[in-house]
Amino acid sequence: FFSSRRRHTRWNCDWSSDVCSSDLHILTDPAERIVVEQAIFNKRKQRARTHDQKEKLAEQQWRRGKWYLENSSRADLARRCFQEALELDSRKPQYYAWVGWALFRNNRTSEELIEARDYLRQALGQNPRYGEAHYFLGLIEKREGDLEAARRHFQEAVRLNPDDRLAQRELNLMQGKKKRDGVLSRMLRWR
User: Fold this and answer.
1) Which of 24, 35, 61, 188 is the most exposed, having the fewest neighbouring CB atoms within 10 Å of its CB?
2) With contact defined as beta carbons under 8 Å apart, do 63 and 71 qualify?
3) How confident is the model at residue 18 (pLDDT cuts 50, 70, 90)?
4) How far apart are alpha carbons 178 and 111 in whole angstroms?
5) What per-residue confidence (pLDDT) applies to 145?
6) DSSP for the chain, written as a single string
7) Confidence band (pLDDT; 50, 70, 90) for 165?
8) 93 vs 125: CA distance, rounded Å
9) CB count, 10 Å around CB of 12?
10) In the Cβ-directed half-sphere of 145, how many Cα atoms lie within 13 Å?
């Protein structure tokens, strides 16, 4: 019985031998899925010897972090994935930027806000032309009430990438608010 089950289980393993079909029921429970994904990552991290392998694994963790940030309310897990990507490959500014963005999204303390800005500034230190970091900093500054700094970051994001619709939308919203405020102040003065 056990030997046939073992063969059956081994036969149903996927190509990477990390997850077997007998374990797939675990993946339907989000908490257990997180544990399994982390175990798979740790196993792959131990096996990654070359720079290319580490780069590939870092990219996978970054994509996983983006998924957590965009498809769930687990900014804490996204941050962990981004930080693991950064540990594997610290040369990519996007990893710094996304750690910063996850910190901001998970923002519970003023220290995390400071740390988020620091990561984003590190991303820009590595690549001043990384528009996404400017966009993220613009959103942070906007939320913190520094509209002029936000406008500068959004303008820089659009200058670096004219197709950046999100940064352009933020600029348009800010410009619309400025126009509305101007009309309102003229109306109040006129009375």
Assistant:
1) 188
2) no
3) low
4) 31
5) 93
6) -HHHHHHHHHHTB-TTSS-BGGGGGGGGSHHHHHHHHHHHHHHHHHH--SHHHHHHHHHHHHHHHHHHHHHSS-HHHHHHHHHHHHHH-TT-HHHHHHHHHHHHHT--SHHHHHHHHHHHHHHHHH-TT-HHHHHHHHHHHHHHT-HHHHHHHHHHHHHH-TT-HHHHHHHHHHHHHHHHHHHHHHHHHH-
7) very high
8) 8
9) 13
10) 0
> Of 28-32, 86-90, 152-156, which range is least confident?
28-32
Q: CA-CA distance, 177 to 188, in Å (whole number)?
A: 16
Average confidence (pLDDT) over 145-157: 96
> What pLDDT was estimated at residue 106?
86
180: left (phi over 0), alpha (psi -120 to 50) or beta: alpha
* Angle ∠(55,92,60) on CA atoms, nearest 5: 40
